[in-house]
Amino acid sequence: MPAVLVGVLLGPISAKFIDSSRWGSAANGQTSEITLGMARVVIGVQLVSAGFQLPAKYTLHRWKEIAICLLPVMTLMWLCTTLCMLATVPKITLLAALVIGSCVTCTDAVLSQAIAKGPFADKFVPRHLREIISAEAGANDGFGIPFLMLAVYLIRHADVPGASADHSVAAGAVGLVARADVVGRLGGGARVAIGEWFLETWLYTVIMSSVMGAMIGYGSGKALRFALRRYASPDPAHVRLSD
Fold it and tell me: Are residues 39 and 72 in the same domain?
């Protein structure tokens, strides 16, 4: 809440100190693109920071707890949030509520640091609880994408009455994940939707991203250890030349 208030005070509505509509070429509609890009950078940095702050091989040692948080707990959160949307937002359909629920189910890695780091956390929150909160917040964004895309594919393909009214909601949600062109209703039924959800979301987006991340992380670790060894024990000839 303090960050939101400071943003309002410094933003274009109040002090006009931060006004993205006047940055760069000041093109129309650039505020949404700039806000999305900055949000991606902040979340990306925070996710990397959360990974570095956890103990070594934490996910391997605590995989059962993390799996419980990511699979049954997140699924229940998604369904409960969907029910809250249906109960509070008038005239909203089930598929649109599923899209919105998937977007707000994931624990934000930046906000979780309020109870995982700092003097208050050190004094009142046990260490093991802080660590599991950081680990879950860092991993649940990737696990929230299947929930989102399942609802999006059902809107695009399933023959559900009233689903065409949800297309704007689905298009906006997909725009947050990837810069995809707007695609209207495609038809084909729930079977086609589930098939594309499995192929494009699970195999391509989730599994391939995990493999790429593991390869980049492993290579970066090797490069870092090589650099540290070179720094700790420099070449004597290089030292004499430097002297």
Answer: no
Q: pLDDT for 82-101, tens place per residue?
A: 999 999 998 888 888 999 99
Is 54 within 8 Å of 135 (Cβ atoms)?
yes
Question: Do residues 46 and 73 share a domain?
Answer: no
Same domain? For 126 and 164 the reply is yes
Model confidence pLDDT, tens digit, residues 27-63: 888 888 888 898 889 888 888 887 888 888 898 899 9
Which residues fall within 8 angstroms of residue 165, CB to CB, at 6 or more apart?
A: 93, 96
The answer to whether the predicted template modeling score (pTM) of the entire model surpasses 0.85 is no
- The CA distance from 99 to 3, in Å, is 27
Judge if 79 and 152 occupy the same domain. yes
- Which of these three, 190, 211, 236, is where a domain ends? 190
Residue 201 to residue 221: CA distance in whole angstroms = 28
- The distance in angstroms from the start CA to the end CA of the chain is 55
Whether 80 and 178 map to the same domain: the answer is yes
